[in-house]
Specification:
By secondary structure, this protein is mostly helical. It is built from 13 helices and three strands.
């Protein structure tokens, strides 16, 4: 099961130049190994030996910084299949991770993932004298970043020479299960399983730090974004810490707004409210209500300060104006017109 492509375009960068440069560096160094007479002995001078970092062996004469092996081993590969598998995986997931971080931060993220992967293999693997080479640990960090941002992107996997579309989360679940099985499997293997798991853990922890602020993790992993939190996440975090009260919710999960404090009604307002309710319930006639509360009480729904003229009458010496005629609006059909112009 090998990923050969995905349907996930980039949004922030035009071309993943750093991914192309990393692939070119790995392929170029491999060609030097095979064709240029670089030699296996020289390759092992740049590989990671766990014994050099656990004080079980000393560095070769003339080597100033053995720690540089933690970076140089990432560009070396053992054979053609090892190289092709890593380069295909880097080509599939690298562009989207670089799109979420930018060129420089992506390069630093890639190298840090490889360093942590090597340290995990050094301190958890059993054989201290087996050299380790390859970009698998760095690519495992990219796997974790891609999973947390695009878990449901569609991958194209090559299964028995047939391209099969599959969600990315399904591929990563199978891949992670293989790494865990390889760690606890009794048979010996030349695959650095601990390096893969260490790189994956490093990528999952560093992606909230290295990604752009406007790049959000998938809601499935949003709880792991402990730096770029959304306002809702920050609000609920303050609720959990006791700094604010959570919003009140009813039985149907609808948030209730706080009701402002209202002054109590005066006896006159309470009487008007009771009479108005009686008028609405037909317990009081309109004439009785008008006689008691005066003109405009039904319109304003509040008692008037003085007795006004009954409705329909005008003050003395003033003629009533006729009400303007209101023409009914023509109802327009929502159906399309059947009249066509020639």
């Amino acid at each position: 099961m090998l990923p050969i492509g995905d349907h996930n375009p980039t949004r922030h960068i035009s071309k993943p130049y750093v991914t192309y440069a990393l692939m070119a560096a790995c392929v170029g160094i491999f060609l030097l190994e095979m064709i240029g007479g670089f030699g296996r002995s020289n390759v092992y001078n740049f590989a990671v030996y766990p014994a050099l970092f656990t004080n079980q062996a000393s560095a070769p004469a003339g080597e100033l910084l053995p720690a540089l092996r933690l970076v140089s081993y990432q560009f070396l590969h053992g054979d053609l299949m090892h190289l092709l598998g890593n380069m295909l995986a880097l080509w599939v997931v690298g562009d989207n991770v670089e799109d979420a971080m930018g060129h420089l931060r992506y390069l630093l993220f890639y190298l840090l993932g490889g360093v942590v992967a090597a340290l995990a293999q050094i301190y958890f693997a059993g054989d201290p004298f087996t050299p380790m080479i390859g970009a698998s640990g760095s690519i495992a960090a990219l796997f974790a970043a891609y999973l947390m941002m695009h878990p449901f992107a569609r991958f194209i996997l090559l299964i028995f020479f047939f391209p099969v579309p599959m969600p990315a989360i399904a591929f990563f679940a199978v891949w992670f299960a293989q790494q865990v099985f390889g760690v606890f499997a009794p048979n010996a293997s030349n695959v650095a399983w601990w390096a893969h798991l260490g790189g994956f853990a490093c990528g999952a922890l560093l992606i909230p730090i290295f990604k752009y602020r406007n790049v959000a993790l998938d809601p499935l992993f949003a709880w792991m974004d402990f730096i770029h939190r959304t306002p809702t996440q920050k609000r609920w975090a303050s609720y959990r810490r006791g700094r604010a009260k959570p919003p009140q919710r009813t039985d149907n999960n609808v948030r209730t707004l706080p009701v402002p404090h209202r002054r109590p009604l005066s006896p006159q307002e309470a009487e008007f409210k009771a009479d108005y309710r009686a008028y609405l319930d037909s317990a009081m006639s309109k004439q009785e209500f008008e006689t008691k509360w005066g003109d405009g009480s039904l319109l304003h729904r509040k008692p008037m300060a003085h007795k006004a003229q009954p409705w329909g009458s005008a003050p003395e010496g003033q003629a009533t104006e006729p009400e303007p005629e209101v023409k009914p609006r023509k109802r327009r059909s929502i159906m399309p017109s059947t009249h066509h112009k020639d």
